[in-house]
Amino acid sequence: MVAISFTPLYGVQSTERSCCYLLEVDDIGILLDCGWTDDFDVALLEPLAKVIDKVDLVLISHPDLAHMGALPYAMGTLGLKAPVYVTLPVYRMGEIVLYEAYQARTKDDLEFNLFTLDHVDQVLETFIQLKFSQKLKLSGEGEGIYITPHAAGHLIGGSIWSIAKETDEIIYAVDYNHRAEHVLSKTVLDTFTRPTLLITGSMSLDKQQPKMRDRDEQLKDEIVHVLRRGGDVLIPCDSAGRVLEVLHVLDQYWIKLKLKDPIALLHTMSFYTPKAAQAMLEWCSERISKNFDIGKPNPFNFTHVNLIHNLDELDRLPSPKVILATSTSLNHGFGKDLLMKMAPLSKNGLVFVSTPVPGTVAATIHPGTIVKLKVSRNVPLEGAELLAYEAKERRRLIDEAELKAKEIEEAALEDMMMTIAEYESDDEGQPPTNAPGAQGPPTDKAAPMQLRGSFKVGFGQFATAKFPMFFTMDTKCEWDEYGEIIRVDEFKDVHQAKARLRKAKAASSSSKEDVDMGNGDDEDDDVNGLAAADRRPMKTVHSSQHIFIQCTVQFVDFDGVADGRAIKNCLDNVKPRKLILVHGTPETTTELQEYVQTTIEQCEAVRPSHTKRSSHDDGVGECCRCTRHTRTSALISSPTRPCTSCRSRNRCIRRRFFKRLGATTWHTSTRQPNSTAQHASWTWPSKNTTRPCYCRKARSRWPC
Predict the structure, then answer these.
(1) Helices 522-534 and 494-501: crossing angle, nearest 10°?
(2) Residues of the chain with CATH 3.40.50.10890
(3) What is the 3-state secondary structure (H, E, C) of 505-530?
(4) Which of 116, 162, 387, 564 has its CA 20 to 30 A from that of 124?
(5) pLDDT tens digit string along 576-603?
(6) Could you tell me which CATH number the domain at 214-369+549-555 has?
(7) Best-predicted range by mean pLDDT among 175-179, 384-388, 406-410, 503-507?
């Protein structure tokens, strides 16, 4: 019997897309996703902070903020210390998503300090990459648990996770797509049969996904209509997820019609999005892989897409143009800046390719309405604020220099003591000159060569010092079967380093002392020095601005998730023994629960809630116990009558045992050492059907 419990932390019966759940299999805590919003509200993560010590491993399903955005804060502040299992595209695209989200947030708020890029790097170091259908057996405390990712079809590398132990199988499937698209294949959820537990969502239950051809034509018509009247088109999108499908459709349409209007992908990591996708064709649809194998160009080598990193580069492109900018919520990023500029003009157009989340700026935009936006502006520090900042920076630099000097001194002392110990061990192996068998004193000709520059001074452990030279340590290069190991830091892209350091606070001119930080990366130090010299200390000033929406606003469904009909069909095919409904609104969750209870036999549908039930509640969702009791028994064969085929007394199980007990399903069969009995575990269902005894040695049935 496997003890299974499920605790929703957030992402149940809510309009929020971010989700995080705790699944406990016996004594192992598995964190299913760790999402956040682009507002980075710490209050949302309070339930996660209360159970962070129970987490032994993390499974990430999709490379977006809604499924992995809280990992840097969880590891940097909450103290999460667990391996994170992902697929290769989730690792590559997740890096782009987290970097871009941090830079977009710090662009609007220089005082943002919930996590840093160092925390993002710390998260990436804990990632363990798996392939689709790769079954991984956990070790240590998780012995006996198998985890396997399967294709979800929503984002590149997006996974449906299978967690299995003994006879129980748990499927975690949120945000999957039942249809194949230009970039991705469809999900494989409907290939599972009768799992013990299925954890799935109902967010898109009230939607109807359009046909792919109709969807593409609608997007093209809306864009071309705006371009023909001389306006620009703004498409809010993510940084490395569904944007690949949109870019592929637009680029192929531009090639087919030979259009000249520029297309721009605008975010700080735009250069890396198509480059990363070009190296992951095996994770895409079969058609893309086959076309590339027969010599066709890489589908992510977009010939009509300009990769833009800031607004100055965007202004150099001629109008009219199509702009894909982050983020989908329009709360932060370049999309919000372009909205304030383009919305008041009636010739421009705004096309949403993902459903706006309630509570965001995108959800409040309608033609002819007034939208209130939070505007952030960076201004230089002056007066007392500047003096306080200079003093703070001066103290910080001095403290860091002292700490670094102390670390260097301790490391040098440790290396010196190790070297002295090596010298002493070498001297102990040499015989003294007056010992029997030792060589005599050197000759006059050899003396200058052997004794030149040597000395014999010192006492104690330094008495064996021989050569008068300064202490030094040769750098030891690490080697493997291919040669010297390459340091990745030496080949980092300078643009990536500049993008990081562009957001760092610069020290004032009075605090520019000659302090060696000693971080071992001269390139980063040089770039940091240039950034500090070019920028003055700044602060962020927030204000509100009202925008009158006069541009056209349209919505084209590029969400890439299963609609209500597909969700119900998948549940009919899978037929789970128990179903937990998460990641949906209260209305869609209730509707799907009622459908399952009335349609699917022997399936218990549970609708958990994370709403606080009292003032003493910690905010953690109610725990769902999903343990399934399997009736098993050890049947011992009688040694009095041997098998007529193999004459074996200890490998046969009589049919009368099964007929009396009604066992039908074979689970395990283990023969205990030093025993003449055969033990077998069986399950007793509602029907009492019989099976003949099977002799495994003679490969024949028992002739009862």
Answers:
(1) 40
(2) 214-369+549-555
(3) CCCCHHHCCCCCCCCCCHHHHHHHHH
(4) 162
(5) 999 999 999 999 999 999 999 999 988 9
(6) 3.40.50.10890
(7) 175-179
